[in-house]
Design brief:
The chain has about 400 residues and is α/β, with parallel strands linked by helices. It is built from 13 helices and 17 strands. The strands form four sheets. Strands 4-12-11-10-7-5-6 form a seven-stranded mixed sheet, sandwiched between helices. The protein has a four-stranded mixed sheet with strand order 1-2-3-15. Helix 3 packs antiparallel against helix 10, helix 4 runs parallel beside helix 10 and helix 12 packs across helix 13.
């Protein structure tokens, strides 16, 4: 029995997997069971932010595994304290709640926003506005917050108290931002929705309107955060700091970690017993996360991300069959002139290149540590596919 057959016999069929068994990796490349190598322009959907088995990350994680793998949040650990302090220092937020995924981080943000409003204004002010084409997770609450109808089958009834605003439509925002709303939740770049960045004027309008009404702004930076766009948070490039921001994916270099960060106004809303997570802030994940933070916050690192992003984008724009590019930094959407994104992704796999898709676009989320040499190799493989 092959590995694929073995897994399919025992695991629920919830994923559309590529027909390859990844066996090991180093740097920006990985290899399958046959030894065939692949340049990874997807980094585990943006989670392997430092590539495969980065030396500093591996050392930190292994050291922690040999020290303490888990306790519970009934006790303190130094590694969680160090990670929390470093994350708050880098982002400028007051406090953080640790969990295990982006969906959980967003779930925490939803609960925080509703409790903030309830504590201050009482019942009836619980609605959260999100955007059409958004994606916030697969739990029932975060699916309810997701503005994609394609995800809204089968699981009825959904959690009440959400409404959807058309992205970049200020009039629609103003019409729906009434006295029942406690928060507006947004992605600066809608990743699953096609790697589309919001317009600056629309973002400005959200923050201005919410400030007047004491409505919280929640930014879902699960995919855009931790240096992906060339700044630690994408919000820095839009000139705004949300009341609450959620992070996951690349924050722990490939280990399950989510974080919900709150400003001073919201830092103590979730008090003892109002929220929790058995594995949130796990010592091993925190050790990996601390290694990521120390790397990404080192002088010059994010300058390098921006430089490599510009280099990659310039090369991609000149490829045959590329209609346009979207996104910011190393979060890239490629609109194609005549090929289907799924077909290109499968053909690239055959050539030895891992890419992702988002709606009708090719989506690239390469490791932040990728070299220009690896970029050149990957772009050459993609060029071969697009030229066929």
């Amino acid at each position: 029995m092959t590995t694929q057959e073995q897994l399919n016999a025992s695991v629920m069929p919830t994923y559309g997997r590529f027909p390859v068994v990844i066996d090991h990796g180093a740097g920006e490349s990985c290899a399958d069971e046959t030894g065939k190598t692949y340049i990874d322009f997807g980094s585990g959907i943006g989670t392997n932010s430092l590539g495969y088995c980065n030396a500093a990350w591996t050392e930190a994680v292994c050291r922690q595994v040999h020290t303490l793998q888990h306790t519970s949040n009934l006790y303190y650990t130094k590694v969680q304290a160090d990670f929390a302090q470093k994350l708050c220092e880098i982002t400028g937020y007051e406090k953080v709640f640790f969990c295990n995924s982006g969906a959980e981080a967003n779930e925490c943000a939803i609960k925080l926003a509703r409790k903030y409003s309830f504590d201050k204004y009482g019942k009836g002010r619980h609605k959260i506005l999100t955007l059409v084409n958004s994606f916030h997770g697969r739990s029932l609450a975060t699916l309810s917050a997701t503005g994609h109808e394609v995800f809204h089958n089968y699981f009825f009834p959904f959690v009440e108290g959400f409404d959807f605003v058309t992205a970049n439509d200020i009039a629609d925002l103003q019409a729906k931002l009434d006295d029942t709303v406690c928060a507006v939740m947004l992605e600066y770049i809608q990743g699953e929705g096609g790697v589309n960045a919001l317009e600056q004027a629309f973002v400005d309008a959200i923050f201005e309107a919410c400030e007047k009404r004491d409505v919280l702004v929640i930014t879902d930076e699960v995919q855009t955060g931790v240096g992906r766009t060339g700044t630690f948070l994408a919000g820095e490039q839009f000139g705004h700091k949300a009341d609450v921001v959620t992070l996951a994916k690349g924050i722990a270099g490939g280990l399950p970690m989510g974080a919900c960060l709150a400003n001073e106004k919201c830092a103590d809303v979730l008090d003892k017993g109002s929220h929790g997570s058995t594995f949130g802030g796990n010592p091993v994940c925190c050790a990996g996360g601390l290694a990521v933070l120390e790397t990404v916050s080192a002088p010059g690192f994010l300058d390098g991300v921006r430089e490599k992003a510009a280099y990659l984008r310039e090369k991609l724009a000149s490829l045959p069959g590329v209609k346009s590019l979207s996104g910011i930094g190393l979060m890239i959407g490629i609109a194609l002139t005549d090929k289907k994104a799924g077909d290109v992704a499968n053909a690239a796999l055959e050539k030895g290149l891992l890419v992702l898709t988002a709606k009708d676009k090719i989506r690239l989320l390469p490791p932040l540590t990728i070299s220009k040499e690896e970029i050149d190799k990957g772009v050459a493989l993609l060029a071969d596919v697009l030229a066929q």
